[in-house]
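Risk register update: the risk of archive-format incompatibility is retired. Evidence:
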Amino acid sequence: MCDHEKLWGLIAGIYDAALDSALWPEALASITGFVNGRVGGLLVKDATAKRVDVYCHAGLDPHYLKLYSETYGRLGPVATSLCGEVEQVASIPELVPYDEFLRGTFYREWAKPQGWVDVAVGVLEKSAEGCAYLGMARDEASGMVDDEMRRRMAFVVPHVRRAVLIGKTLEFKRAEAATFADVLDGLSVGMILIDSLGRIVHANAAGNQILEGADFLRAVGGRLVANDPQVDRLLRDAAADSGDAAIGVKGIALTLTAHNGERYVVHVLPLTSGARRLAGAAYTATAALFVRKAAMAGPSAPEAIAKAYRMTATELRVLLAIVEIGGVPEVAAALGIADTTVKTHLGRLFTKTGAGRQADLVKLVAGFATPLAG
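Archived output:
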């Protein structure tokens, strides 16, 4: 795809951003060039508010960023469709009918003035509250999302996902050698630093508690050992001072099972590449492991509604638009479809849900959004 030095420089930049969120725009710029995009961003979809917000970006015009935040974050194809599967890469025609996209308010007033024709999106994380994803826009010069872009996105998305999850675990902007241990010691998530031979050089309180349990992870002769032989080999490879290349695109969520059946997730962050060298230097650590109990994420509110009432993807889009935007003419204009089409779908929604008015549909969606709902 490109020479190895540049490729692993790109990956190193992604993992540096896990420790310092100020580096994300630079990392996104590198990713954008790698996949032949024009504008890149990390975005978060709020399923309850039914909108998408830009967490950080590379190349987006400040004027259009402001418009997106104020208005168009509720109207785009990601906001009006279901979240895909984690690490799945999709383009606009897979989210909404492309002719409807071209007729809709989002394209006509926001995407078209920027020359955008398509966007590749890769889901990074998914929960009941919504999803986070990597988005890479294409303009008329670069054309629609093609197989090569999909291949490159599929390569980079797992690395971005791992970095985002580790960044959420750490929840701090900059990890310098002087503060690294203090920050990590305060985490409720188990953290274990290991050297190139797999020896444990530091563990926070939660990490020590895991090791003392001597269950799915334990210390044997000062070395970290996993009860799963395959995971144990992966951890040793990651620690063997070979940097980001060691973990590749696999192992985004190494899973281990305790004797009582509880499952745990282990994320590995190499400390021998990029700016992360400073974080591990004081301990001669080559990798940091973050261990947490696996949590089952429930479906998002829109997904739950669609499943409960057997709605098609288009019916769900119309339902969410009715709730967010209002009347039939406004929804038709926003989605780029005829008034009669909206009315047809609205009639089907009334039949499937038993609602008699649009206000009842609003109450239905609100009921699924509240944590107190059935």
